[in-house]
């Protein structure tokens, strides 16, 4: 044996101080390496039919929302839209497992989950429309701003959950991110903090196969992203991300566990991004149509409708009602986006600080003078450039 | 340098692509790494076709982690390679700041000259393309405030090629700031024709009333302002810095002394910005030649606004002409 070899030659002695022993029970960390499914299994019978119909309805409305938003980008009314078409089951489940006092920490693709929390569709889309950053007050629906820098919202979720626990309040935080985001340092630091603090937080990774053009195989060599939980000492769960009932069930269990003081969970939902990364992206450069078609056959809406009908839980009338609701939402979105956005350019100087600095007051006065001069020149101030562009 | 000769129309994006390709052909130590630089060719297509020509090892699609990308590039450079890193957008380079500030910038100094890091970090920066939050930052002041980094920013198609080749050839780390709103600007150029080296400012337009000192995305705005100023009877010079570190004090002072009035123009926030440094240097060195204080025309001291409001933020021709008008008061 060389001096550098630290491998113990005998079993670890029982007198080893606690500080170096295992901190969490290794057995239940990743109990199942095949994704949880409910649709098409006898398990389905255990669920409340009302919940199932509600999930279905939300899926239909969510799909229509995605379609309408995508159309709005084509009309130049949204600057950019990262569609969650194909991933609606995850979006819907994230919104429905949280209580009113819980917090959601979404990423830029998660508008549907945000709307599912009760945020107005227009307000949820100001970031992507280009008229404001966050168009809603996060405190009202307990929904953090849509987050663009990847994985940076994950530690926020941990901190908030930790703070709630310090205050003795039964609040859970749910952080949503993509497969690519799991490579960022912030993700790993968030997991570690959550486990060490035993924070009531749930991480939902929507593994949709790609980070823009980079496939999962180039992103991670782990057997699954759920495995990443194991090293940090928290449970990892794998779920079929296109099975809305399964995602709901797995997330609900994790939320309950967190609320009961059981600590964080990492959930990996296996799903697929049916559209390009955003409307500005060309997905044909990095993936083949066959792959997309194969996943279309596993569409979350199709699955849900088929299995609920088979189980006698969904009839034509319920399907028609959901479709109507979806159309009504789309019409509202069109009407809202047809109206030109109103803004006061001087609002740029608001909310930079609680109190504007003297320098900002001076700059606001400068812009006000410029706008007044423009108006004198007979030009219309405050109009949009109507530019569209890359991003998100 | 292995290059294709001849004048033709090229966009800045194509010029950058050609620079990377030619640098990789010329030196097998040049390796590219970043997010989506492979099959996709980068979100702005700057690395288009390079993975196909040089293979996935020399044009590496990395996991999505900027600190990891730059930290890995440091190790590669320590072993003799010349990594060229792509940061997808200005604000997404921030996770790599630790590696940049603590290691990339300081390695030569920390090792008493033993380990220089010939790394080029390409950062698409600035606004004007309708990008949403975190896609339009002008981050140059963070870099220029970090000793040990060269900070280079082209404004013309020819410089995009010439300066990128020079940056890759540099034995020091270079932050290569690409003005993303100029990616699609076109010019008739012979890319192989030599340009001025890094560290030299270039007078893009002579004039006797005042000089506009600028760089990167603001150069075309300044040239437009200079044209518009003719109607007012002002004859404006326009100086393109091309490189913020090293800074070309000699050329800047020579021009300022001969003209006597100067306005610094950039789109990043003004407070603590590069313009403040320039105004201070010019005042220190040219005080007795100045007929008026050095003025700055910059973005406001606010987070970059949403796209529909960005035109209120970006310094435009009118704001520049207003500043020039103020200079005349001192006569
Ligand atoms: C820190 C950071 N780096 C780079 C980007 C640019 N970017 C935006 S989305 C994206 C891919 C993200 O992929 P993934 O996490 O899998 O989420 P998905 O888009 O698939 O939902 C990249 C690289 C970013 N937003 N933030």
Automatic annotation (TrEMBL), chain A:
- One short Pfam name that applies is E1_dh
What cofactor requirement does the entry state? thiamine diphosphate
Answer whether the UniProt record assigns the keyword Transport to this protein.
no
Q: Which GO terms describe its molecular function?
A: magnesium ion binding; pyruvate dehydrogenase (acetyl-transferring) activity
Q: Which Gene3D superfamilies match?
A: 3.40.50.970
Which intervals hold domain Dehydrogenase E1 component?
A: 59-329
Region annotation (Disordered) maps to 1-35
What InterPro entries does its record include? Alpha-ketoacid_DH_E1_comp, DH_E1, PdhA/BkdA, THDP-binding
Q: Biological process GO terms, please?
A: branched-chain amino acid catabolic process
Q: Does the record carry Transport as a key word?
A: no
SUPFAM superfamilies membership: Thiamin diphosphate-binding fold (THDP-binding)
| Catalytic activity, EC | 1.2.4.1
**Keyword field:** Oxidoreductase, Pyruvate, Thiamine pyrophosphate
Q: What NCBIfam families does the record point to?
A: PDH_E1_alph_x
Return the protein name: Pyruvate dehydrogenase E1 component alpha subunit
**Organism of this sequence:** Kitasatospora kifunensis (Streptomyces kifunensis)
The lineage, from the top, is: Bacteria, Bacillati, Actinomycetota, Actinomycetes, Kitasatosporales
Automatic annotation (TrEMBL), chain B:
InterPro entries given in the database record: THDP-binding, Transketo_C/PFOR_II, Transketolase-like_Pyr-bd, Transketolase_C
Pfam families according to UniProt: Transket_pyr, Transketolase_C
Q: Name one GO biological process term.
A: response to nutrient
Cite the entry's keywords alphabetically. Oxidoreductase, Pyruvate
Q: What is its EC number?
A: 1.2.4.4
Cofactor(s) the protein requires to work: thiamine diphosphate
Under Gene3D superfamilies, the record lists: 3.40.50.920, 3.40.50.970
Cite the Transketolase-like pyrimidine-binding domain residue spans from the record: 10-185
> Which GO terms of the molecular function aspect are on file?
branched-chain 2-oxo acid dehydrogenase activity; magnesium ion binding
Q: Which domain of life is it from?
A: Bacteria
SMART domains with a match to the protein in the record: Transket_pyr (SM00861)
Name this polypeptide is given: 3-methyl-2-oxobutanoate dehydrogenase (2-methylpropanoyl-transferring)
